[in-house]
Amino acid sequence: MTDMLSSDTISSPVPGGIALRSPESIAFEEAWEAARGANLIPARAELDLRRIAPFARWFAIIEPDPHAVALPFRLTGSGFREFFGHDLTGVDYLTLADPAIRTHAYDCVMECLKAPCGLWQMTPASTEDGRRIAYEYTILPISKAGGAPDHIVIFVNFEAKPLDELPGLRRIEHSTVWHWLDIGRGVPPGSIGTAPF
Predict the structure, then answer these.
(1) Residues near 27 by Cβ (< 8 Å), separated by ≥ 6?
(2) In the chain, count of helices (H) and strands (E)?
(3) What is the pLDDT of residues 50-103, one digit of tens each?
(4) What is the pTM of this model?
(5) Which helix (H) or strand (E) holds 73?
(6) How many CB atoms lie within 10 A of CB 43?
(7) In terms of C-beta distances under 8 Å and separation of at least 24 residues, what long-range contacts does 27-36 make, across chains too?
């Protein structure tokens, strides 16, 4: 694996209760690595369902709009439907985020396609009942049909699994910790720190 956060770093705690880079996040990247084989990124059809199955509940595919600041979901696992109470297919992820971070969140996803590279982050969300839930994003680029990267896959790992209750989400907040993942072509400037989304 070529990521910049190795399994040696997963024991350092961060606010919200999740240690840096969980074993699940690393396993998700390994499944992505297996799908790409000798290619820089995998095509969507190359994602091995047997290897992705452990992540399927909290797995999503987003197709960034290259002409507008929008990150519409194209596929979401059952966990998203349970959490939000409806299917997110076609919903713009950015409508769920703090308006102050939407443009920068979009720009970071576009950097994942341009470099290409991955992104790992710890992100809190506020719920309708006033609680905060910390969760981990692992984001990696794919291509719809085997060409240049034009989609991202996401695995969301919650701090408490399974959630005893599925609280209504009020807003996705600013990430508390983030890091680019080097998949072989380098990464944009910036490293571990506070991310814009």
Answers:
(1) 54, 55
(2) 4, 7
(3) 899 999 999 999 999 999 999 999 999 998 888 778 899 999 999 988 788 889
(4) 0.80
(5) strand 73-76
(6) 17
(7) 27/54, 27/55, 28/55, 28/138, 28/155, 29/1, 29/3, 29/118, 29/138, 29/140, 29/181, 30/1, 31/55, 32/140, 32/142, 32/153, 33/1
